[in-house]
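Researcher: Sit down with what I've pasted below and flag anything odd:
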Amino acid sequence: MNSKAITRLLRHPFVGQTQVSRARSAAAKLAPSEPSQPEIVTEIPGPKSKALHADLGKIQSMASIQFFVDYKASAGNYIVDADGNKMLDLFTNISSVPLGYNHPALIEAAMGDEMLTSLVNRPALGVFPGENWGDRLRDVMMKIAPRGTDNIITMMCGTCSNENGMKLMFMKYAEKMRGGRLDFTQEELSTAMTGQTPGIPKMCVLSFEGSFHGRTIGCLSVTHSKPIHLVDIPLMGWPSCKYPRYKYPLTEYEAYNLEQDNSCLAQVEDTIEKQLKAGCPAAGIIAEPVQAEGGDYHGSAYWFQGLQNICRKYDIQLLIDEVQTGGGATGKMWMHEHFNLEHGADIVSFSKKMLAGGIYHKQDLAPKQGARIFNTWVGEPSKLVLLEAVLTTIAKENLLTRVTEVGDQMMKGLDDLGAKYPGVISNTRGRGTFCAVDCDTAERRDKIVSSMRTEGVHIGVCGDTTIRFRPALTFNQNHLDIAFDKLNTVLAKVA
């Protein structure tokens, strides 16, 4: 029985729930099987990908496309391109695929009535949510809420999550500037319409060199990873500070790295003081646990604890951007859980592996008036259907433990390769399978990445010379052995 026949069966009025469940399970089993190893049949991108890109170029400019994908054929930890090349995927659509491709649990969830209703009747959640929306948020999203947060606002992507997280910080600080008054004067309302004070107060958000938080105007104002993201765009001119730049291995550079933490924290506090004196106070700080686009630079637990202490001292908020680090890749659902923050998180943004986007936050940051954090959709219920299946699978298969164990072997293997090819790759770092290494030059880095693709392993880049590894949570030791065998082959050629 093919998938179309099963779908028709599910809609038959005389089919009971038991038969429906069995039919969905049968449909899920129709998912393609994961290949046992990579298979490359053309160059990458191949002729079909090139032709598709040329055709797309007639109606859309998207020079960033690397190759086109056959998502029906992709399976598990393997991505299959339009030309039939089967690659072990350690980049997973910029770290956004939680369980690999065509996972049976997600296929089964996608065939349910809740998914059908959500897709056909997509609600404007901020005004007309479905009657079960509150229950779904509690049953799915709040079960994994970061410690310290008790509210959630769903969004569509990581960028709008960060944008609205910053708005929460601004609104809270403005409330404090009004002495806690929740209503607005006529002067505040009228000057808001003309972009003047007091309706539009002077405030800023403090960010860090090397950061990436999105591509809206507000998010670009706290993004400092690549010039091409910023050039030509008039931005807010908000201040940025240095993010720690550690030396590796950490155990050999403890004193240096501690000085990095302390000097960066001192600059943060000094900048906050300067902004206060200049009449443009910082309403909060936005920081990534790992600057995943800027070069996979990590912040330590000590540093993040210091940031939170500074925020407490000045009564401002800390927005932790977990768009790329959230969802389990570091061995915990949220990377900042590794940091043991005394007060938990103020605001946490998420997307990518979480499939849905949004912000968790402390209740006292909730908007006091309607439609202040708002758009037409304010999220998408269908994503919660898939996320629920992901979270169930993570728990059932104990995937966070697997991520930790495989990640330990990944770190060890990368260290060993660094010792075998000194001066080629170095600075192994990571948590779980969220790992990276640096190359000596950008040219060598790009050669390694392209050669790995030729060998059938798809990996990513970031920063100036960094290779980043972003496999799915289902990535196991066998996958790692294949990846390292190919990486050893490539390094031997380019060293």
About this structure: The chain has a mean pLDDT of 95. The chain is about 40% helix and 15% strand. The first helix runs from residue 3 to 10.
